[in-house]
Amino acid sequence: MPNSAVSQPLFLYSTTVSDVGTVRANNQDSSFAGEHLIAICDGMGGHAGGDTASSIAIRSLAHIEQDDTGGDIEAISRMMETSIMAAHDAIVGKAKRERKLAGMGTTVTAVALVAGYWVIAHIGDSRAYLLRDGHLSRVTCDHSYVQHLIDTGRITPAEAKNHPQRNVVMRVLGDFDIDPHPDISIRKAHPADRWLLCSDGLCGVLEDSTIEETMTALSDQGECAQQLVQMALRAGSTDNVTAVIADATLALDASAFDLPHQTPLIGGAASGNLEPIADIINEPVATAPALKEDDSPAQRAAALIQPADAHDDTKDGAAAEAGTIRVAQPSTVREETGERTNPDTGEIPVVRKPDGRLSADPNDPEVAKAIHAEQAEQKKAKRGRRRRNMIATIITCVLVVAALAGAGWGAYAWSQTRYYVGSASGNVTIYQGIPTNLFGLELSHEVERTDIAASDLPATWRDQLSQGITVDSMAEAQSHVNIIRSEMAKLEEQQKRAEAEKAKALAKSTDKAKADSSAGSSGSSSSGSGSSGADSGSSNQSGIGAADDAATGGAQ
């Protein structure tokens, strides 16, 4: 593994664009675009959990932006793996402390430029693409259920696009009983290499050929990232969409004064709190540019059905989503400039006195009177709102009860057209219906119980069975059971083979130990005989002969 810097060092220019999309209420993706590190994290686990998990992962990796200057490739690869495992521990710990975050997790795909080499770390179903010499290649492999089906030849890549379990991730960071170790790979960097890191909100709807054409046609990084995200939204993506574009640049004069430099950009959920990242890398960071307005019919239709606060992440501090770019300085600079959070002390009315003076002194009788009047007006308005809310609540309850009665019957009738694979009494079981209940009424019933013990399955499979693997027909459910059965047979065969090899190795080591012991005993006996001297040789021979004669006589 080479560890020395190349004679003509490469520099990295990067940018990122992240958008909440047309359906989701908040952005759970996070991204980092720096001079030495680029990363994309796709969070999961509900409104509060996904953005928290992806932000933790970005903060755990951010230090590599500064810590990679030594040029030790092996050290950076170990550092990336350690940082991702640290993010896993932090996510699990936070989920245990805050129960509302239980089940949160995130994918991680990160690339670092070190001494002319790319170090890639990956876990989950986000992707890294490399455009080199006009050819696009997918560098990472999805850790997903459908990718497993593709690898085993059960479905085609085209069928995976619409597979009902296409969003099931087999490996991810977070509060799950699965392997959190990332895949680490290293490859030589070339000048003009272009990277795309993206969440599945982009690569899940755009073909690789479309991505390749766009990355080749648009040389400007910002335009390329904007175009890819907009294309994904127009193609009907229902997820958050995030893209990171990074280009390798060759610096002919490494000692030049004006070397390539950029401020690291933070996108998505992680942009809501820039100061910790600025402190970690000890340099300014900025929010990523917002997605430019796309006045397509699809976007206009999505704006009509989307919740009003879908893009209003400024409530959580995500200035990038509001279309403004914010720069955060590290703590040393903030202390020097005296930057502090202004306390929210409320507003005191300003009163004009009879002599023309303005007063905001609460002890002034006229100001106190104005405060009292404002408070009385606020109480009156609050009582009016409470009354209107009560009437609206009553009307809403009546309408909801009526709607639920109709929806309940419709949901039950529809549920009986569906099937799912779950577990009952410890065995894999096929159910008709859906794995839920409506006001205490179970919407499923058992139709076929297999002889496959759920306890013999891997933990990830048991988790899927506990949630229910939904299918469209009984035949498809039986097909899933057959897949589980065949995979179990393979696992059992692998275990038997491993046990046989282990037993063979143990027997071999035992035989070797016995042979060594026998050789040692023989050597000791020979040494004792030799010490008696050459003169005793004839007596030894006569002794042996006598013993032979005695044995022969005894035998006769």
Q: Over all CA atoms, what is the radius of gyration?
A: 35 Å
Average pLDDT number:
78
Largest sheet: 10 strands, mixed
Number of helices: 15
Low-confidence stretches: 1-7, 308-322, 340-347, 529-556
Strands, total number: 21
Distance between the termini: 77 Å
**Class by SSE composition:** alpha+beta
Global shape? globular
Estimate percent helicity.
40-55%
What percent strand? Answer: 15-25%
Question: Can you give a write-up of this model?
Answer:
The chain has helices at 46-61, 64-67, 73-97, 145-151, 157-160, 200-203, 208-217, 221-234, 275-281, 297-305, 331-337, 365-415, 459-467, 474-530, 537-555, and strands at residues 10-19, 29-33, 37-44, 105-106, 108-114, 117-123, 127-132, 135-138, 173-174, 183-188, 194-198, 241-250, 265-268, 285-287, 327-328, 351-352, 358-359, 419-424, 427-438, 441-453, 469-471. With 556 residues, the protein is an alpha+beta fold. Strands 2, 3, 4, 5, 6, 9, 10, 13, 14 and 15 form a 10-stranded mixed β-sheet that branches. A hairpin with a 3-residue loop joins strand 2 and strand 3. The protein is globular and about 120 Å long.
Q: What's the arrangement of secondary structure elements?
A:
Blueprint: E1 10-19, E2 29-33, E3 37-44, H1 46-61, H2 64-67, H3 73-97, E4 105-106, E5 108-114, E6 117-123, E7 127-132, E8 135-138, H4 145-151, H5 157-160, E9 173-174, E10 183-188, E11 194-198, H6 200-203, H7 208-217, H8 221-234, E12 241-250, E13 265-268, H9 275-281, E14 285-287, H10 297-305, E15 327-328, H11 331-337, E16 351-352, E17 358-359, H12 365-415, E18 419-424, E19 427-438, E20 441-453, H13 459-467, E21 469-471, H14 474-530, H15 537-555
Parallel strand pairs: 13-14
Antiparallel strand pairs: 1-12, 2-3, 2-13, 3-4, 3-5, 4-9, 5-6, 6-10, 7-8, 7-11, 11-12, 14-15, 16-17, 18-19, 18-21, 19-20
